[in-house]
Each structure stands twice: as structure tokens, then as C-alpha cells.
Amino acid sequence: MIRMTEKIKKTINRDKKIINTIAREPYPLVVAKGSGDYVWDISENKFLDFTSFISVYNFGVNGNAEIRRAIKNQVDKLMHPAFLDFYAELPVKFAEGIIDMMPSGFGKVFFSNSGTEAIEDAIKLSKLLTKKKYIISFYGAFHGRSIGSLGLTSARISQRENLGPFPYVVHAPFPNPYRPLSSGMDPDECAMACIEHIEKNILTKEYSNKEVAAIFVEPVQGEGGYIVPPKLFIKELRRVATENDMLLVSDEIQSGYYRTGKFLALENFGVTADIYTMAKALGGGMPIGATISRTSLGDVLSGAHGGTFGGNLVSMAAGLASLNYAKRNKKHLERMVKEKNKYMMKRLNKMKDEYGIVGDVRGLGLMIAAEFVKDKRTKAPGAKEQEAVIKHSFDNGLMLLGCGTSVVRLIPPLTMSMENIEKGMDIFEDAVRTVNTGMSRK
Ligand SMILES: Cc1ncc(COP(=O)(O)O)c(C=O)c1O
Question: Whole-structure pTM over 0.90, yes or no?
Fold first, then answer.
């Protein structure tokens, strides 16, 4: 059981007074240090990490020794290279390393400092390279919170309220196999209905293909609820983009970098996009955003885009060390992600059969989630159940994050030991069982 101390309470109170924050999990975690599979708070409470700190620490909490060594070495040489105005070798080397991981035809990388910046760049690239103004994205999507990317985001009202208008975006429905557009629709039928909406409504009645620059998609919707679309949907998106001379942009900020078992999440669908955005895990714990485009798309005019801190050498050193580790351990990583997925999905499917509050379990690789419901038949979202499961798990030393309306993500570092994966699943199941019993007694 976690010990709640005065020190924790005081720190949280000071935080609430001064920090202008947007959201916090419903548990009082004040982090102090972390290593491998574990995190310690400021009162020495120890937690197993099933969050990867929002999908960042793919190779263990606080990166691994190799990443930390590269950071320390670089700090003593030069931190900020003013890459907007001067040349430096490290960003070039890192960009070459990223391109090495990409499908053929990709040869351009733009570096920024976050996911939302990577999306801003992709929006600008799409518009500048096609000379078209509109962008299609999806309901449930999360592409960031700066004003450009926020236009594409459509995960919850609280993120957009009072901030619009976003006149360059049109949203289309995203196929959710658990909650199809109409009851009884199978996943592929739902996928095709969403595609039909783009072709028969948006491109026929709203904006012509001469005006739509790109379609932005998350291969697996993240913040919107860890929704894995049918393969057919992504394949059809590629067709629609190609036939209408629009770019397909894959937002891999949460799902990329081996989270789904592949370097690019889109590889799971057998489709190649025209632009990819990456961030989060790409920096091995340091802030990085990257927008990676096909060479054939060309460059934007010098001066059309840039930023003071893109290409920061400490971030580049961390990213490169992390990428080198990933390349050396590629086969092992892929195999381990598959094995851990198999184990976790088996346990989750069993929980779905046993507990009334578990409506759906889903995921690709180690991008896994459970959706909670009040009633399996009506599928009414179980937001209270979700929160109670997260809190109970925290009290017993397991860190989890929510997403969507009533979904819990289970996203341990890819390198977590099998023993700790089992331990985490035991704590999670204990929470589900307890909440399930409590709820059914009411
Ligand atoms: C798919 C996706 N795109 C973009 C972003 C925005 O990234 P950042 O928070 O680094 O701006 C996120 C963050 O959660 C994300 O999951």
C-alpha cells in the first residue's frame, strides 16, 4: 500500500497554487526518480510503470544507461547549436539514422521539440507543397494542442472550447470496431461507411479535391481511446488520398517507435504515408519532434518554417543513442513486444469474460487498452469504473493512464521484464475485480 505523506500533500498544494496546468491523473503521484521498470515518488513509494510516462520511455524509465551517457557527454560539448542558422553534424547523423528506418523514398526530416510542433510542420508542408488549403482529420483524433494542430484534434470538447474557429479542417468519422456507426455493422462495413463519408459527402458536397491538401490519421487513435481501425480503412484512406492527389499524413507520435512492434505503426496496415510525424519516444526522454517526408515532395522555401530550438544537440544525442540501441536490438524488441502482447491480451480477454465492467480489450503490440462500461449490453461508458480501477492500481503500486471516455491504457516500457508485466497485470486484475464487485453490489 502506498504511503500518503505530508510532503506529498504539501507539494501538490504548492503545485495547485502556481502551475497553470491542463490535466492530471486522479492520483497523487509526485515523481522523484525512476529506473528500468520502476518509479519512486518523493516519499520513497515505489511504483511499477505501465504508462512509459505517456509513451515516452519505451526503453525503460529515465531512458537506459546508453542514452543517459550520450546526454551527459553532449552537455559538456555544446547544447544549443542554433541549427536554424548554423550547421551541425549530430542532427544530420540522427536524421540519416531515422531515414534508414523509413520505407524507400523518404529523405527529408524537419526537427522540432514536441509532437504538436511536428504536426504544425506537417500542416504547413501539406499546404505549401500542394498549394491547397483544407485538411481532413477524424473525430476522436488527438494531434496536439497548439492552435494549428488543435484544429485537427477532435477528442473532447474541453480541449477545443473557446479556441476556434479552425476553418481549414473538416472532420470525418473514424471506424471504432467496438462502437460502430450503427449497431450490427461489422468492422469492415463501418470502415467503408467512414470512407464513403469522405468521398460522397466531404469531397462531393463540401470541398473539391483541388482544395484538400491532406488526410491526417493516427494509425491507432491514442488519446481518443486506443482505437485500432480495421486494416481496410487505412488501405482505403491511401487509395482516396492517391486518387485525389492529396497527401496521407501518419501521426506516429504515440503509436510509432516500436510501440506497436514495428518502427512505424502504419507498417501493421501494409500502407505507406507521404509524411510521418514522430515525437515522444523518439527523443529517448528528451524533447524532440520530427516531421519526415518523401524526397519527391521537395523542400519548402527557405524561411517558410523554422524554430530556434529544433536540432538541440542534447536531444539529438539522446535520440541517436536510443535509435542505435533500437537498431541493435530490433529483432529482440519485435519478438518481446509480440510475446508480451500475447500474454497481456490473453489475461485481458479472460477479464472481459469474467467481469461485467470490462466491455472491450484491444491493442497492437504494447499499445493496449481496456474499455470500461456500466453495462455490457448497452455499452454505457463506465467513467467512474475507469477512475476507480486507476486509483486502486495506484494504491497498490501500479501507474496507469486513462484515455477516451472510460478507457485505461496499459503501456509499459517495451523493455519491461516478463516478471514485472505479470506483476502489473496481477495488480490491474485485482483492481478490476475489486471495482467490479463494488459496482455490482450497488
Ligand atoms: C498522436 C499524438 N499526436 C500529437 C500529440 C501531441 O504531442 P505533444 O504533447 O508532444 O505536443 C500527441 C500527444 O499525446 C499524440 O498522442
Answer: yes
